UniProtKB/TrEMBL annotation:
<dbReference type="GO" id="GO:0016491">
    <property type="term" value="F:oxidoreductase activity"/>
</dbReference>
<dbReference type="InterPro" id="IPR002347">
    <property type="entry name" value="SDR_fam"/>
</dbReference>
<dbReference type="InterPro" id="IPR036291">
    <property type="entry name" value="NAD(P)-bd_dom_sf"/>
</dbReference>
<protein>
    <recommendedName>
        <fullName>Oxidoreductase</fullName>
    </recommendedName>
</protein>
<keyword id="KW-0560">Oxidoreductase</keyword>
<dbReference type="Pfam" id="PF00106">
    <property type="entry name" value="adh_short"/>
</dbReference>
<dbReference type="GO" id="GO:0016020">
    <property type="term" value="C:membrane"/>
</dbReference>
<comment type="similarity">
    <text>Belongs to the short-chain dehydrogenases/reductases (SDR) family.</text>
</comment>
């Protein structure tokens, strides 16, 4: 994880850990929080996209630490949690937007590799991260934020719909288990947005009628 070694810009700020921060609603949430004075621990696989996010955050006077990591690698995620705990002692907000969107296809033609990757990112990684990040949230009475997408059962969404639904079932169980003892778990439902992910699912759609991801980020954060 890259940090400023001469002067720590994160001191005295609330910490938001954003997994899947390089694009879409994850990047928009990171930018909105940074503009409000939060320090962002941004995690994603793509270093270049993270650096572009960091440039935008710095442009609004914010600060970020970058973690070019793969959420499906258990050792990397364990190291991330240990590093965050050692440096900051906890997390005020965890925003989880990392997702694998398998190409649409009939249920009878599911690609085994796409199914395996979707399971690894959408289900297995989420399960591991909940276990790793829960103590960090409890240390600061923090909040975990997830995003629902009701695609289960829709035609051609068999892989994405099933693995996303499984992820949300896991999150809802966690939400019910921690309702009285913490951490707080929030599930948001964004409006249809003009993101790259949606563009893959609906390439011919009129994107001018879709919500702007930055507007949605601000709306969702305001609801918290």
């Amino acid at each position: 994880m890259s940090t400023d070694q001469t002067q720590d810009p994160s001191q005295g700020k609330k910490l938001a850990l954003v997994t899947g921060a390089s694009r879409g609603i994850g990047a928009a949430i990171a930018e909105a929080l940074a503009a409000e004075g939060w320090h962002i621990m941004a995690v994603a696989k793509t270093s270049g996209a993270l650096e572009e996010l960091d440039d935008r955050i710095q442009a609004v006077g914010g600060s970020a630490s970058l973690g070019p990591l793969d959420v499906t690698e258990p050792e990397q995620m364990a190291h991330l949690a240990q590093s965050v705990g050692a440096r900051w002692g906890g997390v005020d907000l965890w925003v989880h937007t990392a997702i694998h969107a398998a190409p649409l296809c009939p249920a009878g033609h599911i690609d085994a590799k796409e199914l395996a990757k979707s399971t690894a990112v959408n289900m297995t990684a989420t399960a591991q991260l909940i276990g790793l990040i829960e103590p960090l949230l409890l240390a600061r009475q923090g909040t975990a934020l997830f995003f629902d997408d009701h695609r289960a059962g829709q035609k051609f969404f068999s892989v994405y719909g099933a693995t996303k639904a499984a992820q949300m079932a896991m999150v809802r169980s966690w939400q019910a288990e921690t309702a009285k003892i913490g951490p707080r778990v929030v599930i948001a439902e964004p409006k249809p947005m003009a993101t790259a992910l949606r563009g893959r699912f609906f390439p011919g759609e009129d994107r001018s009628v879709l919500a702007d991801r930055h507007d949605e980020a601000r709306r969702i954060l305001a609801a918290l």
